[in-house]
Design goal:
It is a single chain. By secondary structure, the chain is α/β, with parallel strands linked by helices. It has one domain. It is 37% helix and 19% strand. Strand 4, helix 4 and strand 5 form a beta-alpha-beta unit. The longest helix is centred in the C-terminal third of the chain and has 17 residues. The protein is globular, with a radius of gyration of 16 Å. The protein starts with a strand and ends in a 5-residue tail after the last helix.
């Protein structure tokens, strides 16, 4: 999906598909859209961010989908450099998903209005963190409010992300 997600029938279908595929933890985002609590934009590799997404009056979450095995970090997202200045809060999610992680994103959007959620791999996480640190440094040097970054990563004693969701709970064979 690229662009703002607003069609109620499509959102309901996505919720069902994600539940069936074992990705129901992402549905906190879609349910918030259905409730009218936020605008949601999903950005896929090599796609461009719709301009209007940066200027939404509604609390907005931009999700960068960098963990599906078809990309390799910020270089595959032409607008990566525009995303960090836009967002007061960023979650770099380089681990198996949990419902509470996505609930945190929804709550942050309600408080801070603009949240960038980067769903990425263990391998690409350092490149995304580098962008976040550069933006944090830029804001500090210009006297701007700091960038809030939450990094969620796989513990060092577990296999790198992506891994089957059960492995993220410690049920590895």
């Amino acid at each position: 999906m690229i662009g703002a997600i607003s069609d109620r029938a499509r959102i309901s279908a996505v919720i069902g598909w994600q539940e069936a595929a074992g990705y129901g933890f992402r549905n906190a985002l879609y349910r918030a859209v259905l409730a009218g609590d936020l605008a949601l934009v999903e950005l896929l590799p090599r796609s461009r961010l719709p301009r209007e997404a940066l200027w939404s009056k509604a609390p907005t979450v931009i999700v960068v989908g960098d963990d599906a095995g078809i990309s390799s970090g910020p270089a595959d997202f032409p607008d990566a450099g525009r995303l960090f200045p836009w967002a007061p809060r960023v979650m770099i999610h380089a681990a198996g998903g949990e419902l509470r992680h996505y609930e945190w994103v929804v709550a942050a959007a309600q408080i801070f209005r603009r949240v960038l959620l980067i769903e990425t791999t263990t391998a690409a996480e350092p490149a995304w963190m580098d962008l976040a640190e550069r933006e944090r440094d830029r804001r500090a040097s210009e006297g701007l409010p700091p960038l809030g970054v939450l990094l969620i990563q796989v513990p060092e004693d577990l296999p790198p992300h992506p891994v089957p969701p059960s492995w993220c709970r410690g049920d590895a064979p």
